[in-house]
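Project standup — Tuesday

K.O.: blocked on the structure for the chain from last sprint. Re-posting the sequence here as requested.
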Amino acid sequence: KIKLMYCTVELETAEYYLQNIYKKISNEKINIDADCKYELLRLYAEVLINLGDFATALIILDALKKMCGLYSKLEYKYYYYLLYTYIEMYCRKSESAKGLISECKKIAEQMDGDKYLFRAELLECMIDMAGWHNIFFIDRDIDVADEFIEKIKEYKYYNHLASLYIYGFENDFELYKDAA
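H.V.: unblocked you, prediction finished:
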């Protein structure tokens, strides 16, 4: 039900419940399955990132990193780096984000399923375009391969495709200076 809240953008409600679950897990040392705990922490970090609470998200990511050390699951490491990259990108630390996404892509290449690598490549594209936050940010041309555009369509990431079309074309300062 909490995942549904997240998917329907009931972020504050999801955050409330996940915060309470996190407190119970960490303070009362509730014994739950490692995969379940990881999924809860990962979802909590995603909610916090989407709410812009990067400081708390980093605390949760620290718990995720500890789990990566305890369990040698590539998926744990992949999501750790993916989520950490989002934080760095949204905090406008693009060089750090690029280093993290590079690590994430290396892990994705070892995993089954193309979607892991696709999501990392999409995030890499978002880093180049300042996380879709500012239409007037680009001071250089950013090439996006036609094959990647097709992958975005294949995986039905239409919001990202729209952002690429909006932010990725005709970003010439002269074109927009009268509008600003």
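K.O.: great, moving the ticket to review. The longest helix spans residues 34-51. The chain has a mean pLDDT of 85.
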